[in-house]
Amino acid sequence: MHAARLLHEAKSIVVLTGAGISAESGLATFRDPEEGLWSKYDPMELATIDAFERDPELVTRWYVWRFARAQDAQPNPGHEALAQLEQWINEQTTCNDDRSFTLITQNVDGLHQRAGSHRVIEIHGSILRWRCTNTGAEKRLDELCFDQTPVPSEHGGIMRPCVVWFGEMLPEKEMIQTQQALESCDLFLSIGTSGQVQPVASFVSFALSNGARTIEINRDPTPMSEAVDLSIMGLAGEILPRVIDAIISFE
Ligand code: OAD
Are residues 180 and 98 part of one domain? Predict the structure, then answer.
């Protein structure tokens, strides 16, 4: 299998995931014409700082609802295969075969971590963490009481989810880690993302122009499908386990 061969040969792998990898866990993507969140809800009413300032109760409730959906969901074989890939790479590194693996996700659902991935860069944040609008002090969602919404913070502000809203900057620490990973990467694998949202959508072109091999696994074609070295059209939860099994069987 060509994808497995490329991954097996790579020294520095960056994987980028989007909502498509969680679709087989039952979580809606954003841009599916029928089931996508943005086909049912207006992002300008729910995913901007203006929306939160206008109606913090509505926005809080929407993110609590999304958190509940994510908690009820289970990681699927796609998430599990990526956790296995990280573990395999760590084992190779222990055997003096120096390799690196970075998983960057646009998802805020925490499913990669629940599948066993350890090093995950949450480039669009997480709905499991919330922060005070005054001080930025963070709390885990399970430490908050939602009897009153918006939830008052003990520092005088209100609590908002630690997610990136339209018009906001990506988190600084995560961006620095991403930049470093992209600069040294020799294989970039994009999974389940439509490539519509900047700046994340440009990561694959950056990797390409930096000389990395590029693979895309996606149910539908994307703007990058023709540019990547290998485009595999299909479901992440079906394809990834086969790819990872093949990598491990090269040993
Ligand atoms: P999208 O909804 O834009 O794209 C999901 C992609 O996954 C589509 O290209 C689908 O074809 C593909 N897909 C669906 N099911 C799949 C499966 N089982 N296996 C493989 N591919 C599948 O979601 P994202 O690209 O993640 O940002 O969206 C990017 C950002 O836009 C999100 O992080 C969010 C949203 O607005 C913010 O909220 C800031």
Answer: yes
Q: What is the CATH number of the domain that holds 37?
A: 3.30.1600.10
> Domain containing 65: what range?
32-72+125-163
The pTM score is 0.96
User: In the chain, how many domains are there?
Assistant: 2
Do 226 and 152 belong together in one domain?
A: no
Give the per-residue pLDDT at 248: 87
Q: How many CB atoms lie within 10 A of CB 46?
A: 20
Ligand 1 atom with minimal separation from the 166 CA? 39
Percent of the chain whose pLDDT exceeds 90: 94
> In degrees rounded to 5, what are phi and psi of residue 230?
-145, 120
Residue nearest to atom 29 of ligand 1 (CA): 197
- Residue 124 among the catalytic residues: yes
Query: Strand, helix or coil at 221?
Result: coil
pLDDT over 80 (residue 96): no
The domain boundary residue, chosen from 109, 134, 163: 163
Distance, CA 29 to ligand 1 centroid (Å)? 5
- Cα separations in angstroms, 43 against 48, 49, 71, 190, 227: 7, 11, 22, 24, 29
| CA 20 / ligand 1 centre spacing (Å) | 5
pLDDT, tens digit (0-9, with 9 covering 90-100), for 100-157: 999 999 999 999 999 999 999 999 999 999 999 999 999 999 999 999 999 999 999 9
Of 8, 79, 112, 124, which is the active-site residue?
Answer: 124
Beta bridge partners of 104: 16, 121
